[in-house]
Design a protein that fits this description.
The chain is α/β, with parallel strands linked by helices. Helix content is 39%, strand content 16%.
Length: 952
């Protein structure tokens, strides 16, 4: 630094004078003017207009100026007279504009500042502008809200001229008291930092209008008694109180602020790493070199000494010098190299092409730094040609950045724990920032890593080649990604960009990281697979429709909630011909059955593989590959599990299949299945609803149901196994829902399942010639079914209905105080009307009919851990296990045969069965389910009738 004017020393104990204070203020204003001029020089002509009229927009509240909301909006700065250049800029926007005399009206606004990188080495045409708009402390809430609305409108107008503008509205009194109006957003640090931000403000701010900072007038060595000095200046009338604004001192950074500020910079570093790395390292430097002056103090001391040239006082130069000294003294030269690269890239000024740059002062400053660093031309060229960086270059640099950001976060967190301090950042803000960090950097299974967080402008490739590893004589199904392979033989020596066991993963990674666009030429060497360029093109179109690129970061509202899937894209049979083995067998021609899950005469499942791409509410993209076992059911189960976490917002499902091998039909079938299942389990945004969903796939049956919020499935190898499972006892009522293509050969069963009701016993029957099919659905939805001869139609259902009525009556007598009492047994006939199967209610006229023959009852006996055995009663005759043992059934059959006239041959039906409540020796059942009674009734009747036939 070079001193241009004499030092100024203020001695508050010996005395100060107004003339010296004015010289000091003017010295700061001289630096301020240089920075203003430099800030303008970095902008285009239209952008300069924005910067020029900003003070006037808030000072005049004129309807012809940008941002105007209404006539009542607060306006006017203390002691502000718009210069002619500002008035001229306003008249270029609105010819009718003129400044009116407000007389002695009290201004509503105290001051306006521009802070951050404008006017510094770190500023460029792409940088944003941060404004501090300070209003008087007694402004009503309505006026503050009006100013905030005006600030929003002004930001929109500035955006239309290519300026990213952020206006923060507050008053100095609230700032000093730590009252924070805003929460963490993209540009507002919320509760994360106070003194660190004030330190940055004091060394970077440009005064635009209104009052000057009181901090200018307090010597750095007096900041420990800042308030005392300030009161002396105002109280003794050395300065007018309405000429200065007071944000308070910043003599040191409290330890409790480091964690919040560190997390905040990590938050910013996700999208803009270069500036955040510099600030994170400064925070770490401050924390480890407590006692050394802050950069704001270094800046103020320099001005007091008489150093007023903007070059030597450049905030980014001061920042770099501090970090360089600290890192070299600490032996961390590797981190210093990253700091240098970060500063160079933050400046955004390619020195190898800087001859035409309008900001010669920035070129001069940056050139001096690069020469000091002894960088050679190749190193400069690499950084200047960021637009030519490839995925490998970005990946390497991203690893360094993530390592640095992670190191800083862990170090800051450890310091906070070790000192036992409480971070100033709020719990809500730290959770929010932590979630964004997790979404951006956390690695987890299936997550697609995004490698280019603002490191290179574009990674798009002109040519990409996807090679199956079998092309190189290797085993397995892996894929390799190359660029510019004109000759397939080049793949043997050219390094691969990426390797993956899955073609879809490579495609999604390329798309999400911008390597792949519609203009990219593709080459596929499929090897043992059947992938093709046309299939990859279709996948690209499906991805573009599913997830627009680039992927925007999640907003605050999304991050404030738990993560949930937003939408899924299912890619079916990528690189696979599902009909290859069918074509060999000629099976696809043997049947008119077109269900993709039970295709042709062999009922083959055409869904071989599924790639599930999920986009979640934190804007993470993940991929799960299903290629072994029951892929479709596994994928469906996982989707159900994710929806069960928050059923109020069911994620969208898109399905795509390549046109090879009925791809469109397969995709349509899978889409229907997922939509149907999700609708059944989560209708009305609630759920999971209690039900059992049956899907028929490849001659097998899968029953999906939830246990709490955990979905599961049971695989059943045959229709008989399905019926046996449907008859099992349930813990609660679970209706059975058949998929739209399941059991096409048994439409009657579908009609039965659709007619079921809870807390009821329903008997369904269907007569086909001399045989009748009977279904019983009990109070909890368990379904028992069998066939029997019709015989005498009058007595077709009478034994069964008598049996069920006895059960109902016994339950009602035993549980008369139960809140839900079972209704009587309901009887329905299953009929086919005009090709449609349905159930029709039939009145119960048979349960009271007098049945021929004996009343046969069975009473279960549980003896320890052995199976249940039964004592039986035929009329008044008793047959006990104790007396007859294993010969009990034969004895009962013999007795029944002896009581029949003319040795008539007709089946035996039990009219009642009693089961012990310790049916399972390890469980006591207060209420035994009807299906359990029917199960034992069936076993006993079968045994008796077989014995009767043997006796005959």
């Amino acid at each position: 630094m070079t001193a241009h004017v004499a030092p100024i020393a203020l001695d508050f104990d010996e005395g100060i004078d107004r003339k010296t204070l004015r010289r000091l203020r003017d010295r700061f204003l001289s630096v301020n003017q240089q920075r203003w001029d430099r800030a303008c020089s970095a902008l285009t002509y239209r952008q300069q207009i924005v910067l020029e009229v900003l003070p006037l927009v808030f000072h005049a509240n004129h309807p012809a100026l940008p941002g105007y909301t209404d006539a009542d909006c607060p306006y006017g700065f203390s002691h502000y007279q718009p210069p002619s250049r500002t008035l001229n800029a306003a008249r270029r926007l609105a010819r009718t504009f003129s400044v009116r005399n407000e007389g002695k009206r009290r201004p509503d606004l105290d001051a306006l500042f521009l802070m951050g990188s404008p006017g510094t080495l770190g500023h460029s045409v792409a940088s944003d502008l941060d404004l501090w708009l300070c209003h008087r402390s007694d402004l009503p809430e309505r006026g503050i809200q009006c100013l905030e609305r005006k600030a929003e409108k002004l930001s929109e107008w500035a955006g239309s001229l290519g300026v990213e503008l952020h206006v923060f509205v507050f008053c100095a009194e609230d700032w000093r008291a730590g009252r924070q109006r805003a929460e963490v957003t993209g540009e507002n640090c919320g509760s994360a930092q106070h003194y660190l931000l004030l330190d940055e403000f004091y060394r970077t701010s440009i005064h635009l209008a209104g009052r000057y900072p009181m901090w200018w007038l307090i010597p750095a060595e007096c900041e420990s008694r800042y308030d005392e000095c300030m009161r002396q200046l105002v109280g003794c009338r050395f300065v007018r109180g309405d000429e200065y604004i007071d944000f308070g001192p910043v003599s040191a950074i409290p330890e409790e602020e480091f964690l919040g500020a560190g997390v905040w910079q990590l938050y910013k570093g996700i999208d803009a790493p270069w500036k955040s790395i510099l600030k994170l390292l400064l925070i770490e430097c401050y924390a480890q070199t407590a006692g050394q002056p802050l950069l704001s103090s270094v800046f103020k001391q320099a001005v007091f000494r008489g150093e007023t040239e903007a070059d030597g006082l450049d905030p980014y130069l001061l920042l770099y010098n501090r970090l360089e000294t600290w890192l070299l003294d600490s032996g961390m030269s590797g981190r210093l190299d990253l700091v240098r690269r970060s500063l160079y890239l933050k400046a955004g000024l390619p020195l190898t092409r800087a001859d035409s740059a309008p900001e010669r002062w920035r070129v001069r400053l940056l050139t001096q730094l690069v020469e000091r660093w002894q960088w050679q031309e190749p190193a400069l060229a690499e950084l200047d040609n960021r637009h030519q960086w490839r995925a490998e270059d970005v990946t390497r640099l991203r690893r360094l950045i993530v390592a640095e950001l992670t190191h800083s976060y862990r170090l800051l967190s450890k310091m906070a724990r070790d000192h036992g301090t409480r971070a100033t950042i709020s719990v809500g803000d730290i959770n929010l920032l932590g979630r964004k960090l997790y979404a951006a950097f956390q690695r987890k299974a299936g997550k697609i890593e995004q490698i280019n967080p603002g490191l290179a402008p574009s990674l798009v490739e002109e040519n990409l080649a996807f090679y199956h590893q079998s092309e190189q004589g290797r085993d397995g199904n892996g894929w390799l990604l190359y660029r510019d392979l004109e000759d397939p033989a080049d793949a043997f020596w050219q390094p691969a960009i990426r390797r993956s066991g899955n073609l879809t993963e490579l495609m999604v990674w390329c798309y999400c990281n911008g390597l792949l666009s519609r203009s990219t030429r593709l080459n596929v060497r499929a090897g043992q697979s059947v992938a093709s360029v046309s299939e990859l093109r279709e996948m690209l179109e499906a991805l573009a429709g599913f997830l627009p690129f680039p992927i925007e970061p999640a907003d605050r509202e999304a991050l404030s909630r738990g993560v949930r899937p937003v939408r899924n894209l299912l890619l079916v049979n990528v690189g696979v011909d599902p009909q290859a083995h069918l074509t060999e067998k000629g099976l696809h021609k043997l049947s008119a059955r077109h269900d993709s899950l039970g295709f042709s005469g062999g009922r083959e499942n055409l869904v071989v593989t599924i790639d599930q791409i999920t986009f979640n509410s934190w804007h993470e993209v993940s991929l799960q590959h299903y290629a072994a076992g029951d892929t479709l059911i596994q994928c469906l189960k996982n989707v159900l599990a994710s929806v069960a976490v928050d059923p109020s917002e069911v994620p969208g499902i898109q399905v795509h299949g390549h046109n090879r091998g009925h791809g469109a039909a397969i995709a349509r079938r899978v889409q229907e299945l997922f939509s149907d299942v999700l609708r059944q389990f989560f209708a009305g945004g609630l759920g999971p609803h209690p039900l059992r969903y049956v899907i028929e796939v490849d001659r097998r049956y899968f029953m999906l149901q939830f246990n709490g919020r955990e979905p599961g499935f049971i695989a059943l190898d045959s229709f008989g196994a399905l019926l046996e499972h449907l008859a099992l006892p349930q813990d609660r009522y679970l209706p059975v829902v058949f998929d739209r293509y399941a059991i096409p050969e048994d439409p009657a069963l579908r009609a039965v399942s659709q007619a079921c009701e809870p807390d009821n016993i329903q008997v369904f029957y269907c007569i086909r010639g001399e045989r009748a099919r009977i279904w019983v659905v009990d109070e909890l939805g368990s379904l028992s079914t069998w066939e029997q001869a019709v015989g005498n139609r009058r007595y077709l259902l009478a034994p069964l209905l008598r049996f069920l009525e006895n059960l109902v009556e016994r339950r009602m007598l035993r549980r008369s105080d139960a809140p839900t009492v079972l209704a009587g047994v309901q009887c329905q006939e299953v009929v086919n009307r005009d090709g449609h199967w349905r159930t029709e209610l039939r009145p119960d006229t048979e349960s009271t009919s007098t049945l021929p023959g004996l009343e046969v009852q069975a009473v279960g006996v549980q003896e320890g851990g052995s199976r249940v055995r039964f004592d039986m009663f035929c009329g008044e005759q008793e047959f006990t296990v104790q007396e007859y043992g294993d010969q009990l059934i034969s004895a009962v059959a013999h007795y029944i045969r002896s009581q029949r006239q003319d040795r008539e041959d007709y089946p035996v039906y039990l009219t009642d069965v009693h089961l012990p409540h310790d049916l399972d020796p390890q469980v006591y059942q207060l209420d035994i389910q009807t299906s359990q009674y029917l199960h034992y009734r069936s076993i006993l009747e079968r045994a008796l009738n077989q014995a009767l036939q043997g006796n005959g």
